[in-house]
Amino acid sequence: MAELSDFSESTVINYEEAMDRFGGNKELYLRLASKFADDPHHARLKAALADSDIETAYRAAHSLKGVAGNLSFTDLYNVAARVSDALHSADVDTAMQNMDELDAAYATVRDALASLS
Q1: Contact, 116 vs 4, CB < 8 A?
Q2: Which residues have CB under 8 Å from 107's CB, separation 6+?
Q3: How far apart are CA 74 and CA 7, in angstroms?
Q4: How far apart are CA 44 and CA 23, in angstroms?
Q5: Domains of the chain listed by start with CATH number
Q6: Which residue from 66, 64, 106, 74 is spatially nearest to 7, judged by alpha carbons?
Q7: pTM for the predicted model, two decimal places
Q8: Is 9:105 a contact under the CB 8 Å cutoff?
Q9: In the predicted model, what is the mean pLDDT of residues 53-63?
C-alpha cells in the first residue's frame, strides 16, 4: 500500500500542491480524493462525445478539469484543460486527439488512488 507522500515527485498527484491546498490535512485530502472514483465527469464526457453532444462534452471536460485541479492531479488536469479548451472552441478534432491521453491519465489517477486505500 502506498502513502500519499510517495507521490512527492509525481505528476499523477502533486503531493506538495495538495498539502498546500488542504492546509497539510492529509486525512481531509484522502477523504475527498477517495470520492473521485464516483465522479461522473469522465463517463459523461465520453458519452457526450459519442453522441456528438459538444455542449455537454464541454461541461463534463470543464468539470473534470476542475476536480482534477482541486485534487492536484497534475497530468489529468493538463489534458482535461486541453480537451475542455478545444471543446469550448468547437474544435472537436483536437479534443478527440487528446482523449486517449485523457483516458490514460484518468486510469493512472484511479490506480494511484486505489494504491492508497
Answers
A1: yes
A2: none
A3: 11
A4: 31
A5: 7-116 (1.20.120.160)
A6: 74
A7: 0.92
A8: no
A9: 98
